[in-house]
């Protein structure tokens, strides 16, 4: 009897970059499940309607996806993997359209911003939408030859649309890092990183002392991000990524010491490091 494919939730519509990340991480024998919101991805994983969720957490140009960080704090799910996708924006129109006819372009605000120089040369009106792939669906439904969307090549394939221009980003080194969430994290792989959340006293040197816990053990920090606690103005929680698996001796020792000194600490998970 053939096993059912893994079900993996992602935010957006078919053809979204998040779906590209699903296929890159899990391979072609997987069933992507589109969701309207990041929150819905978390709920589907928690209720076991899907096996995993894939969420964007950081873009090399735009920075962190703050809503995903907040949801990782609010939910009891773990990061078990990560994958990096190169963002290759295309201008996508209806079949038989061409670049000279385009007057209006739809896409997610970030995609529009990332292609601003191309759009200025095109001298067109820009219309923000909630999703890159969803903008292709809108253009297809309207069927107007003077309208186009910015999205992935996969979105053009999915909707049977025409690619009018490729690689239109202002910056060609445009990457998004996605995390994979599930009920548990991953076993050690000898090439791991660990993500945690913590908060410290609002006092001089408190953050310095917390980071020193890792420095004295020569544990390399790969990212630190602050987010408002949303409980008291000007107080923050810190999201930290460091090299190593949480079960390794020096990592486990560092986490125990940090837990003793911090007001709050939560391990989000350990997982193999992704490569570009």
Topology, element by element:
Blueprint: E1 6-11, H1 17-26, E2 30-35, H2 38-46, E3 52-59, E4 63-64, H3 66-74, E5 78-86, E6 90-93, E7 104-107, H4 109-114, H5 116-122, E8 125-128, H6 132-142, E9 147-151, H7 153-159, E10 162-165, E11 175-182, E12 192-199, H8 206-215, E13 221-228, E14 236-243, H9 249-261, E15 264-272
Question: What would you say this structure looks like, in words?
Answer:
There is one protein chain. 30% of the residues lie in helices and 34% in strands. By secondary structure, the protein is α/β, with parallel strands linked by helices. The protein has three domains: 6-86 and 174-182, 3-Layer(aba) Sandwich (D-Maltodextrin-Binding Protein, domain 2), CATH 3.40.190; 90-165, 3-Layer(aba) Sandwich (D-Maltodextrin-Binding Protein, domain 2), CATH 3.40.190.10; 192-272, Alpha-Beta Plaits, CATH 3.30.70.260. Strand 1 (6-11), helix 1 and strand 2 (30-35) form a beta-alpha-beta unit. It is elongated, with a radius of gyration of 21 Å. The relative contact order is 0.17.
In short:
The protein has 276 residues and is α/β, with parallel strands linked by helices.
At CATH's second level, what is the architecture of the largest domain? 3-Layer(aba) Sandwich
Report low-confidence residues grouped into runs of 5 or more: none
Outline type: elongated
Give the integer mean of the pLDDT values.
95
In angstroms, what separates the terminal alpha carbons? 36 Å
Oligomeric state as shown:
single chain
Major sheet summary line: 6 strands, mixed
Number of H/I helices: 9
In the CATH hierarchy, the third-tier topology of the largest domain is known as D-Maltodextrin-Binding Protein, domain 2
CATH class of the largest domain: Alpha Beta
SS class:
alpha/beta
Tally of DSSP β-strands? 15
Estimated share of beta-strand residues: 25-35%
- How many discrete domains? 3
Radius of gyration over C-alpha positions, nearest whole angstrom: 21 Å
CATH-assigned homologous superfamily of the largest domain? Periplasmic binding protein-like II
Question: Which range best describes the helical content: under 10%, 10-25%, 25-40%, 40-55%, 55-70% or over 70%?
Answer: 25-40%
């Amino acid at each position: 009897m053939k096993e059912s494919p893994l079900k993996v939730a992602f935010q957006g519509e078919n053809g979204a970059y998040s779906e590209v990340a699903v296929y890159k991480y899990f391979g072609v024998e997987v069933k992507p499940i589109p969701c309207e919101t990041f929150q819905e991805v978390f709920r589907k994983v928690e209720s076991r309607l899907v096996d995993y969720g894939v969420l964007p957490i950081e873009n090399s140009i735009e920075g962190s996806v703050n809503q995903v960080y907040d949801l990782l704090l609010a939910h009891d799910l773990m990061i078990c993997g990560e994958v990096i996708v190169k963002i290759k924006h295309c201008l996508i129109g209806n079949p038989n359209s061409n670049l000279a006819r385009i007057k209006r372009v739809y896409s997610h605000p970030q995609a529009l911003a990332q292609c601003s120089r191309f759009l200025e040369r095109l001298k067109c009106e820009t219309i923000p939408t909630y999703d890159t792939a969803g903008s292709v669906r809108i253009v297809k439904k309207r069927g107007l030859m003077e309208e186009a969307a910015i999205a992935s090549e996969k979105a053009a394939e999915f909707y049977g649309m025409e690619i009018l221009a490729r690689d239109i980003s202002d910056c060609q080194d445009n990457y998004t890092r996605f995390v994979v969430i599930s009920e548990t994290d991953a076993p050690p792989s000898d090439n791991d990183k660990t993500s945690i959340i913590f908060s410290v006293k609002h006092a001089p040197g408190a953050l310095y002392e917390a980071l020193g816990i890792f420095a004295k053990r020569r544990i390399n920090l790969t990212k630190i991000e602050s987010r408002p606690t949303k409980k008291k103005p000007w107080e923050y929680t810190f999201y930290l990524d460091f090299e190593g698996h949480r079960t390794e001796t020096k990592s486990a020792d560092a986490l125990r010491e940090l837990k003793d000194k911090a007001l709050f600490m939560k391990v989000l998970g350990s997982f193999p490091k992704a490569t570009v």
